[in-house]
Amino acid sequence: MTRPALPDILLVDDDPLIVETMRYILEPDFSLHCASNRKDAIGIIRAHDKPFDLALIDLGLPPVPNRPDEGLTLISDLLAHNPACKIIVLSGQNEEMHARHARTLGALEFIAKPARPEALRAALHGALRLQRDEQAADARQRALDRFVGASAAITGLREQLQRSATSPFPVLIEGESGTGKELAAHALHELASNGNRERRFVALNCAAIAPGLIEATLFGHTRGAFTGAQTAQPGYFEEAEDGTLFLDEIGELPLDLQPKLLRVLENGEFQRVGETTSRQARARVVAATNRDLQQEVRAGRFRADLFHRLSVLRIRVPPLRQTGRDRMALLQHFTRLFAGQMNVKAFELDAEAATVWQCYDFPGNVRELRNIVIRLLVRHAGKPVSRMALEAEMESDTDQSAALAQTPIAREEALHTSTAAMPMPTEGMDLPAVLRRIERDYIVAALQQSRGNMSQAARLLGINRSTLYNRMETLARNGEDFGTVSPGSMQ
Q1: Which CATH entry fits the domain spanning 146-225+232-316: 3.40.1080.10, 3.40.50.720, 3.30.1330.10, 3.40.50.300?
Q2: Was domain 407-489 assigned CATH 1.10.10?
Q3: pTM strictly above 0.70
Q4: CA distance 265 to 288
Q5: What is the pLDDT of residues 285-327, one digit of tens each?
């Protein structure tokens, strides 16, 4: 096994004896890079292929070694280059004023010369642990930030990912096409890796590879195992090592291969194609599907025992229609991202277009939303986007026939996510007024979704057109405001 790389430490001191002593004390645990003055230290920083983890510096450096100015300036230089660098000052200029100044500038610790070797090593290892804890926390936050939005559905997804990340058991990620199932798998991997970038993430799309090649791809093969196998090759289980093996579209896995995957999940053993020796799998399996695997089990297309092994932990990635105003946050996120990549100015939706955007169901979910943003940037960069221009970039089924064709549950979800949540008062409640307001909100949501078509809105609400007119007029008489969508303006 390859030995992990030693942490890099920049040592800056103009005393050759100190440098040699530090080399003797620290080199078993650290990779030292030495400079005798601030200019040389900056040159080493710029030439180094990655930021330094740690720096150990003297304050009294040439050309004025009897003053702390050069060392204090170097602290600022180091942190400007890499704010995560942990700096320990080792100095003979140990006046309390200098120590306070160094800490104010960002130094982690101040150690006076002469320092005991064990104390110095303990300080450096403590600084390294602190840096790695910070990096792990940053990695965990970045993993969760992959999912843009503040809706209850997205907040719940983040909580599910955090709860499932550190478990060794398989995870089944379910969700419609385009919701971001692979993104969830990456987030699980990053949360589990805790900032360790050496742990691998290996992905296989079971629907994108010929059924006859999946076994050799997963488990590897020996030389001569089949025509064209000129050399032995490891499979994805071996390549993933102790990281994550992501099996996308697991519902497409051939039935005759499912028992072999089940064996790996049960006892961790597998064999390369053409080999009799068992090997041990160390990777955690994360699978994803847009199918209802329980229905696939009932239909005989997926093994029940494999389903139960894969679904020890289940995570549901919500469709975009369930995330409310998150679609506006996603619009802003992707607009900033792709405008920067394309080096163009962002567009802006006008009021009508913004209403259409917020009411649209996005049947292709986040993938469709992202593609619409790209097309709008190509055609309307730096310009306002009208309702007509926006609708021209939407999919061909963007009229409300798609919404009307939904199941009753899906229609109710779509309407519910368009209404405002009603906070429960702590005291004094006018229930009839609250119920009127809820009814008004559902009617407004249905009218927005049907773009003002009363017949379609009535069908969405499960009532007839005349009943809808009557309900709107009654609500209006009781003071409920429909805004521009007034009963008299509808046809």
Answers
A1: 3.40.50.300
A2: yes
A3: no
A4: 15
A5: 999 999 999 999 999 999 999 999 999 999 999 999 899 889 9
